[in-house]
Predict the structure.
Amino acid sequence: MGGIVDTRVDTDTGLAWVTVDNPPVNATSTAVRQGLLDAVTRVQGARLAILRCAGRTFIAGGDMREFDAPPQPPDLPDVVDAIEASATPFVAVMQGTVLGGGLEIAMGCAYRIAAPGTRFGLPEVTVGLIPGAGGTQRAPRLFGWDAAIDMACAGKLLSAQEAHARGALDAIADDPEAAARALVPEPRIPVSERPAPPPPDSARIAAHRRTLAARARGQTAPLQALDALLCATGPFREGQRKERALHLSLRASDQSRALRHAFFAERTVARPAVIRDRTPREIARIAVMGGGLMGAGIAAACLGAGYRVDLLERDAATAEAARDRVRGLIAGALRRGKIDQARHDAHCAALRTGVGIGHAAEADLAIEAVFEETATKRAAFAALAQVMAPDAILATNTSYLDPREIFAGIPAPDRCLGLHFFAPAHVMKLLEVVRLPETSAETLATAFALAGRLRKVAVLSGICDGFIGNRMLAAYRRAAEYMLADGALPEQIDGAMRAFGMAMGPFEAQDLSGLHIAEANRRRQDATRPARERYVTLSDQLCALGRTGQRAGKGWYAYAEGDRRPRVDPAVTSLITDYSAAHGLPRRAQDAGEIQARLLAVLANEGARLVEEGIADSDAAVDMVKLHGYGFPRWRGGPLFAARQAGDATIRAALDALDAASPGSWVRAQRYR
């Protein structure tokens, strides 16, 4: 290709070929920007310049590795403007994804031709940014307002068919380069010089703002993208300057840094050192033992990834119920437009339900999702080991139990591991891959390959009580209950953490999952709980009263029939204040800032301990578990990234306050001592 951007002019045909070759996604690095700017000069005199990309995709965004440094010339807006102003018209021939700066470049071209299946978007908002090279100003003029708002504010991708229907593409062609060669250029008004269509009325704009604010949960970029888009109603150059200023301001923001951290961390945790250079085994058929809510979700996720699934139950009635449960999930995906009828039918055909373990003999991998009890799980694997191939992989879905005890005595322990899915398993992205001392690197590599096909974020974990996520959750809940006893109320703590950006506060979340689950874990931990550790019995009291959460109609909150909205219950308020009085605890007001600081400190401290103990490979692993499994705000990067942003001194001060309120209850991580 002759470099990152190769330019060739064919004097016989009058065509100029400009090829970007910057794998893996042809990002607009400094070298690519300079190459494109140079190409504009070199193609002058040709009748048409065909801009194409090597590999499977067109330009799919900027090079985020450069975003922490000051912008280097040439700036992308200047490159796009030069392409748009070129006397030799450019035609973008596109495949794969056309994202961010790639779409801004394509919008600067005079013509746009795409292969079927190409997708278009301005997803800068997902990393805390807005377009910075005229994207918010050209998109309304080319795609219209609805599509521009969806792309720039919500990160939605458009199909080639949608883009063509909106007039943003000149053609969809199986061979875009051939279509470009046949194109006869004619005078065309550049996109930047076209008048923007009338914007949505003020009521619709206000509705967009409300929707974006609700979804963003504190992230600022979506609303700033809307502000930038609305500048397209005025002169292009003025709007472009405002957009660029906003883009550069956001690029230096804590939110964008956090979101970029999350972007790179996801890629880091997907390839832990232990599996590098290891070839995963082929998996075609998966046995799922247990067809309850979790097992059905796991089965549906595996079917959606193209696996054949045997769902195993103890008797005919439960097997039929399990089959119906999975088919209901598949039907739900069809109703929501996630799959078409053909895929729906294929998924149903790939599901086989049975009684006992006989069908598991053909499976390459078995995942158990039976009752959370060591003896029950041990019996399941003892039975599976008798019928499955001696090298078939065996995975437990335990949330808290020690996999070493579950797999004790199983032949070939190198094939055993934990695969901790999160409910609902067909929706939640997190998968904790739990390594036993004997688990082979090949088995782990196979688990990570499985996660990739399931489109999940897999994080490697060692063994401890609750692994990474639930161990941190236990500390978080414990601190929240200490604050209840000392003067806060559930709605105050939940409100503070929602304001922090959490999807739910700790008590709302516990009502959703069920208080009885945490109670069972506490009973299991009674024998080993440190004598000095403070123990608040409020959750136990609620369980004793039958207040186990949403399904019971009452927990920390009250719930009306068929309505999941939590309502403050005076009975719970009285229970909490009575507890404080009975234990001689003066109740002290705690504001949202104090609540947020203490709970962040608890999460950061427990996460740091997990890294120091070798349970988690890195801070990134801890952050990805909390982002993808527990509703931690992505725009804060994860608890350890957020703690670094806050500063160690701030975390230490919050931990000091926690220690003073509950002496002997916390173990400090080394970094916070």
Observations:
- The chain has 27 helices and 17 strands.
- The chain has a mean pLDDT of 95.
